[in-house]
């Protein structure tokens, strides 16, 4: 039998005043637990994007016509709402699963010893982005799926993925000062890659807002731009991202960079190739819903891949317990 400590009135008061400090004082998670919690938050941030896309692609965006309740008279979906109500309400319920994953990451980060305030802050940043995006999602419904609010909803989800990716990476590192593994020229090239990727994602939301998948069977406002023209611009930006990735891989090989940046760049290149194939096939097959959904998943994976390349350009000494120390590889300097 596991001994359960007796909870005194003083303990109860302390728990009410500061529950995170109370838990941290009585539980020290294994470093792997912290990493898994951070990864769970990242996975859920991707899942919520994909299921949100499923809501739009099945025409269920107004399956629950109001917010925060599903209908004027019911908090949950009703039989009358049918399939679309189930899909929309199900996506709303997944927000609570996302909140639970983010909450677990916050608790695990707060309880880790020694305390790592940077991890806790990243966890709380995710929480507030989730709350903000939940409110924005409600506004999307209340304004009848206005395409500009839908685009903002997706961009805020991309910000959530970025924070979750950083937290996952930081949970696998120490808290020392970051030490660059490549020279400034290579880092500048990667920042160009990040900027191009952001433009690619932003233009992708315009393609969505102007395209045929409005998210509901009724007449829904679209962005007044020819979606095929914007799609071609989107494709050009995609080729720019692919070219920058290939150029980065070539430069890293030329300067004999450490294995981390090389490996992350190679992974990103493969993800981009898969995403490109899906993108062209969906365009020439008139945007079938399944391929559009896969393309949304690919967009998340590309963004994560770009961020992982950026984060691989440095290392932090003083690794957390149970993790290997800093790499012994030297920094690439003037040759970059």
Task: Describe, in short, the structure shown.
With 336 residues, the chain is mainly alpha-helical. 67% of the residues lie in helices and 1% in strands.
Topology:
Blueprint: H1 9-17, H2 19-24, H3 31-57, H4 82-111, H5 117-142, H6 147-170, E1 179-180, H7 184-210, H8 227-254, H9 259-284, H10 289-311, E2 314-315
Antiparallel strand pairs: 1-2
Helix pairs in contact: 3-4, 3-6, 3-10, 4-5, 5-6, 6-7, 6-10, 7-8, 7-10, 8-9, 9-10
Keywords:
2 strands, mainly alpha, 336 residues, disordered C terminus, 10 helices, two-stranded antiparallel sheet
Describe the structure.
With 336 residues, the protein is mostly helical. The protein is 67% helix and 1% strand. The chain is built from 10 helices and 2 strands; from the N terminus they run ααααααβααααβ. It has a two-stranded antiparallel ribbon with strand order 1-2. The N and C termini lie far apart (60 Å). The C terminus is likely disordered.
Number of strands: 2
Task: Write out the strand line-up for the largest beta sheet, numbering strands in chain order.
Answer: 1-2
Strand content: under 5%
Tally of DSSP helical segments: 10
- Low-pLDDT segments: 319-336
> Which percent bin holds the helix content?
55-70%
- Topology order in helix (H) and strand (E) letters: HHHHHHEHHHHE
Would you tell me the structural class of the helices and strands?
mainly alpha
Q: If you average the pLDDT, what whole number results? A: 88
Largest sheet: 2 strands, antiparallel
The N- to C-terminal Cα distance equals 60 Å
Q: Given the C-alpha coordinates, what overall shape results?
A: flat
Radius of gyration: 22 Å
């Amino acid at each position: 039998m596991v001994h359960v400590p007796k909870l005194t009135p003083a303990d109860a008061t302390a728990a009410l005043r500061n529950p995170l400090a109370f838990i941290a004082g009585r539980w020290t998670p294994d470093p792997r637990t912290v990493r898994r919690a951070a990864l769970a938050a990242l996975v859920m941030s991707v899942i919520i994007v994909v299921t949100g896309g499923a809501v739009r692609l099945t025409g269920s965006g107004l399956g629950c016509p109001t917010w925060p309740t599903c209908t004027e008279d019911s908090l949950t979906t009703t039989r009358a709402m049918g399939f679309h109500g189930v899909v929309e309400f199900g996506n709303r319920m997944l927000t609570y699963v996302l909140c639970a994953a983010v909450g677990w990451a916050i608790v695990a980060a707060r309880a880790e010893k020694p305390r790592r305030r940077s991890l806790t802050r990243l966890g709380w940043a995710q929480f507030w982005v989730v709350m903000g995006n939940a409110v924005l999602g409600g506004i999307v419904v209340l304004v009848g799926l206005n395409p500009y609010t839908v685009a903002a909803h997706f961009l805020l989800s991309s910000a959530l993925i970025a924070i979750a990716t950083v937290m996952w990476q930081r949970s696998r590192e120490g808290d020392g000062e970051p030490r660059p593994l490549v020279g400034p020229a290579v880092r500048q090239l990667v920042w160009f890659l990040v900027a191009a990727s952001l433009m690619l994602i932003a233009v992708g939301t315009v393609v969505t807002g102007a395209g045929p998948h409005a998210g509901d069977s009724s007449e829904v406002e679209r962005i007044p731009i020819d979606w095929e023209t914007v799609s071609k611009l989107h494709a050009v930006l995609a080729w720019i991202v692919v070219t920058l990735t290939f150029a980065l891989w070539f430069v890293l090989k030329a300067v004999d960079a450490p294995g981390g940046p090389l490996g992350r760049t190679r992974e990103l290149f493969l993800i981009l190739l898969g995403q490109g194939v899906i993108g062209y096939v969906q365009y020439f097959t008139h945007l079938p819903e399944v391929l559009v959904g896969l393309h949304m998943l690919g967009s998340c994976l590309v963004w994560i891949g770009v961020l992982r390349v950026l984060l691989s350009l440095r290392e932090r000494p003083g690794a957390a317990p149970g993790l290997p120390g800093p790499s012994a590889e030297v920094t690439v300097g003037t040759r970059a």
